[in-house]
Design brief:
Blueprint: H1 6-14, E1 17-23, E2 29-39, E3 44-50, H2 58-65, E4 68-76, E5 84-96, E6 107-122, E7 135-136
Antiparallel strand pairs: 1-2, 1-4, 2-3, 3-6, 4-5, 5-6, 6-7
């Protein structure tokens, strides 16, 4: 069973940028914009970024300590009337050391796979100011 509705999947396919939230030992949140792809077969988000030689990204360092993450993709349907829509995904992350180059031009080899255990949206399948009821995996403790 998919945690994503058809409307959410369609929305995620059209967007290109989201925000990844992680935290390390201190618990202080770190949020970074990054590219992603929704894998429709496996129902996971593949997240990657440009590599920086000699330096591991902070979100990767955080995820080595704490594999829990959240990812938000959102936009405004119309301006200036402020009609928001978006999807929030929470779950566990797997770090992959190779293969990230296929996510986009200039992307580094390292990438992460966010396996959702909680999904929520607003303004996609309903009213922009009334979030849908979150869908959770049965084995999730979120």
């Amino acid at each position: 069973m998919s945690l994503f509705t058809d409307g959410e999947k369609e929305y995620l396919f059209r967007q290109r940028l989201g925000r990844l939230a992680t935290s390390g030992r201190t618990g202080v949140p770190h949020v970074v914009p990054t590219g992603y792809h929704l894998d429709p077969e496996r129902q996971v988000l593949k997240i990657g970024g440009h590599s920086f030689e000699g330096k591991e990204r902070l979100y990767i360092r955080h995820l080595r300590i704490n594999p829990n993450a959240a990812f938000v993709v959102d936009d405004l349907v119309t301006e200036p009337t402020w009609t928001p829509r978006g999807v929030t995904v929470k779950g566990k992350v797997r770090i992959h050391e190779s293969g990230g180059e296929v996510l986009g031009p200039g992307f580094g080899a390292r990438w992460i796979e966010l396996v959702p255990n909680w999904v929520n949206s607003w303004g996609i399948d309903g009213d922009p100011y009334t979030p849908m009821a979150p869908r959770k995996r049965v084995d999730s403790d979120d």
